[in-house]
Amino acid sequence: MYGFEYHRPGSVADAASALGGADDGKFLAGGQTLLATMKQRLASPSDLVDLGGIADLKGISVSGGTVTIGAMTTHAEVAASADVQGAIPSLAALAGNIGDRQVRNAGTIGGSLANNDPAADYPAAILALGATVTTNKREIAADDFIKGLFETALEEDEMITSVSFPAPSKGAYMKFKQPASRFALVGVYVAQTSGGVRVAVTGASSHAHRAGMIEEALGGNFSAGALDGVTIPANGLNSDLHASAEYRANLVKVMAQRAVDACG
Fold this sequence. Notes:
2 domains; Uridine Diphospho-n-acetylenolpyruvylglucosamine Reductase, domain 3; globular; five-stranded antiparallel β-sheet; Uridine Diphospho-n-acetylenolpyruvylglucosamine Reductase, domain 2; four-stranded antiparallel β-sheet; 25% strand; 14 strands; 11 helices
């Protein structure tokens, strides 16, 4: 690991100021990816701005059918929250199956979304639930937030402050895990929202995305059987030592059907 300057601000404004004064600074959330990358000397930021001391970035609230989660809220806190379990149980279940206990107690929702790993779970959640990502500068709709492989709409000096999830009438997330990392080989989140059926897929391609074919099929008949005639094309899907593109394509359909069944 290379040397760096460490900052622990107490407010969002101070954090933005610290990053603005750095040559090549990075915000530090849970550190599950960034610190490992630095240890391997694949990244060498001049400054780390630790967001862990900012109380305004933590906590969970429910208002008017919307669950708002602070960016520095850990996966374990989301999973254990009675508010999340009551309003969006599928989101609490998703958080409870991220990584292992150490990851869940250190990793944060804001850090996961800002990193946007192609096999992470939260990107599928924001897309399927039609969430809004709030930063220190603006609000970003989920459909506009995810841009590509490890790429989001965030600017260099922009930090996520909270994420707001409208509660669906039904929702479920099903994940086929990579057994070592527990990332999603393929994960599918299905939700019945006020705007119709939304389906998001993670782990199958370079980034989480909406599954239009599945949404269309479920829009007319919300049942697992409605997907029997749907064929997911393998073109453009990931193919690696864990699974071929064709295997992932089949998993997308299977996980979607299981998610629909889980909706009840």
